[in-house]
């Protein structure tokens, strides 16, 4: 059996003072804390203190800026280039670029209401099944490329959670508040040959999480 691990890394905190759902919009960069989170994950995987050095041979990121920034210190720590895979991109969302709420947010405008009629698909954006399929396809490609070693794929909260739910045979529709996918967290798929044998969740940057902005749902 050849063991391979593919880590799904959610990007770090983003500078988003307006609190909008930024989705796939360009120009949303990591905050100072987000940059620190990215460095902390890189140090963790590269082996700092009592931590062992991981055998990372492949770093791939979503094309969005915040994912590329999160991948950069990790690639540097392992002397690798950051590859880009569009399959890791954030989920498409009708409410992108808007605030989401009843007060002064999108929910008070009737023209948006038809996008809320089906939470199971969901009707406001990219179907959950499509997200899961593209993410698992990216995981499989990384498993082949990093065979016998470890790969890190930098993506976004919802696509990572969809990949995990699908791999574990869970239903894909869910309460967003119950996602186990904090900023800069790792969801690690462990394979023996081409067989998935386990999924492990960890938070290397947990010490930076209190007070971190997560309003974007990205």
Automatic annotation (TrEMBL):
InterPro entries registered for this protein in UniProt: His_Pase_superF_clade-1, His_PPase_superfam, PGM_Phosphatase
Gene Ontology CC terms: cytoplasm
Single Gene Ontology MF annotation: phosphatase activity
Protein name according to UniProt: Broad specificity phosphatase PhoE
Any matching Pfam family: His_Phos_1
């Amino acid at each position: 059996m050849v063991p391979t691990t593919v880590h799904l890394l959610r990007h770090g905190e983003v500078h988003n003072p307006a609190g909008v759902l930024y989705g796939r919009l360009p120009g949303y960069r990591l905050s100072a804390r987000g940059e620190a989170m990215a460095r902390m994950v890189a140090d963790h995987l590269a082996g700092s203190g009592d931590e062992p050095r991981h055998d990372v041979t492949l770093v791939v990121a979503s094309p969005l800026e915040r994912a590329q920034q999160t991948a950069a210190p990790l690639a540097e720590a392992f002397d690798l280039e950051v590859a880009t895979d569009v399959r890791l991109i954030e989920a498409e969302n009708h409410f992108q670029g808007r605030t989401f709420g009843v007060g002064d947010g999108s929910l008070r405008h009737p023209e948006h209401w038809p996008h809320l009629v089906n939470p199971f698909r969901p009707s406001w954006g990219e179907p959950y099944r499509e997200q899961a399929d593209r993410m698992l396809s990216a995981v499989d490609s990384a498993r082949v490329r990093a065979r016998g070693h470890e790969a890190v794929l930098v993506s976004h909260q919802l696509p990572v959670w969809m990949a995990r739910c699908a791999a574990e045979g869970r239903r894909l529709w869910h309460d967003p508040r119950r996602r186990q996918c904090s900023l800069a967290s790792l969801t690690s798929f462990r394979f023996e040959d081409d067989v998935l044998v386990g999924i492990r969740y960890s938070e290397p940057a947990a010490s930076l999480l209190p007070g971190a902005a997560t309003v974007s749902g990205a």
